[in-house]
Amino acid sequence: MLQKLIQKIKPKKKSELHKAIVRLDFYMIGSIFVLLLAMYMFGVGYHNYDLGHNMVWLDCKFDLDLVDTTLQGNEVDGNQAYQMGNIQTRISMALFIIGGMMFGISYMELKQLIKR
């Protein structure tokens, strides 16, 4: 498929074709990486968000002092876990937007590459 695409393209210089393909690869691989990172951060953030909410609810209803331990060994209570999850989900939404824009740029690069 890539060979057919390259055959359709008639660049003025071979270096222009090479630069265009490198840009396209950068944006495609970069957008996939950013979108995967956003999905991972959303999952972790939503988990912390939900865990913090449940810990606060149990603290209020049953008068418990629940503590969660992070991977670094820090102990966080329900409010801190809730805040961490809130921040992580917001960052993941920003990463979804950035990844989508990078994917759109790679689509425009591909259209320009085919037009040549």
% residues in beta strands: under 5%
Return the string of H and E elements: HHEEH
Mean pLDDT equals: 88
Q: Please list the strands of the largest sheet in the order they lie side by side.
A: 1-2
Provide the helix percentage.
Answer: over 70%
Number of strands: 2
Largest sheet: 2 strands, antiparallel
Structural class: mainly alpha
Low-pLDDT runs: none
Q: Span between N and C termini?
A: 17 Å
The total tally of domains equals: 1
The best one-word shape is rod-shaped
Radius of gyration, rounded? 23 Å
- Number of helical runs? 3
Describe this structure in words.
This protein has 116 residues and is mostly helical. The protein has one domain. Helix content is 81%, strand content 3%. The protein has a two-stranded antiparallel sheet. A hairpin with a 5-residue loop joins strand 1 and strand 2. The longest helix is centred in the N-terminal third of the chain and has 49 residues.
What's the arrangement of secondary structure elements?
Blueprint lengths: L1 H7 L5 H49 L5 E2 L5 E2 L1 H38 L1
Antiparallel strand pairs: 1-2
